[in-house]
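input
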Amino acid sequence: MHIFVQIVKLITMLIVSAYFLKQLIPKKHVDPTDLGKLARLQAQNEISLSRPLTERARPKTLSEISGQKDAIFALKAALFGKYPKHVILYGPPGVGKTTAARLILKEAVKSHESPFRKDAPFVEMDASLIRCDERGIADPLIGSVHDPIYQGAGEKGERGVPQIREGAVSRAHGGVLFLDEIGEMHPMEMMRLLKVMEDRRVHFESAYFDPNMQGMDEYTKNVFLYGLPADFRLIAATTKKPEYLPKALRSRAVEIRFSHLTDKEKAKIVMQAAKKCKIRLSDEICMEISKNAGSGRKSVSLLELSIGACAANGRMQVLKKDVEWAIQAFGDQNENFQNDKYA
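output
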C-alpha cells in the first residue's frame, strides 16, 4: 500500500511539473496579418492557367524529337558509356537541344555501364543570366560564402561562423549540369567553372574560418577543409559559332551540331502539338505554318496564335484564314532562317 501511495505522489509531481514547465515556454505569437497572407497564398496556389502549348508539345521521348538523328546518336555515344564526356551543343534556337539533353540523361542511367545513378540530377541554368560577383557572396553557379559581417547572416553568423551557399555545380554532383547560352557567360565565371570541372570539387575560402573556433559546426568545418563534391558532366548549349567559345572549354568537351529543321520536320512538330490539344489540322495547314517558322518552337507558337484567332472569332475549328492571320502578324516569312549567328 505504501508503494502504491508513493507511485501516485510521483505521478502527481510529474503532472504538476509538466504543467509549470509548459507555462515557462514562451507562447508563439500569431500575427493575424500573417494568417491573412497565408490564406491568400493558399488561395493563389489553387489558381492556375493552362499550360502553354509549347510546354505540352515538348517531346517526352527521344523518338519524338523531330530531325537531329545524327546529333542525338552522337549525344548518346558521349554519355551512355563507362566514361561519359562533357558536351557542347551548337545550333539554332528551338531545335531541341535542351530537350534532347534532358532525355539523354534519362536514357543514360539505364545503360549497364553508365556511372550515372538512377536518381542522377539534371540541373539547368541560363548562363547568360549568371553574373560574376567578385566579392564571392552571390554566385548561384559555383556557390558562395556568406560571411558573418553581412546582413542576414543568421544564428551562425551571430556566432562568427561563415556559411556555405551551395551552387548549381554541387547540386549537379553525380549528374548533368546543363548550361544554356554558354557563349554569353562572363569570362571570369567561365574560368571558375573550368577549375571546378578540373578538380571535381568546389573549394571555399573565408578570412572568418577558424577550424578551432567555438561553435564551428562539423559540416562547415569539413567543407572549408575539403570542399564540396562537384563531379558532374557538363552539357553546354549555344547558338554561337565554335570559334566564339574559349579553347579551354572546347578542349574538354565533345562538340555536337544540331541542324536547322526542314519544313517537313517542323510540320511534324505542328501535327504532334495539334494532336496533344485534340485539334484537327490538315497536312496543308501544318506545312503552311512550318514554312513560315524558323524553328520548331516558333512553329508551335504560330499554332497557338492560330488557335487564339479561332477562339476570338467564336469558332471551335481552326481554319486556314486563322493560320494565315497568325503568319501575317507574327510569322518569320520575311527572314532568312539560315542567316542566324550560327549558320
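quick obs: Residues 2-24 form the longest helix (23 residues).
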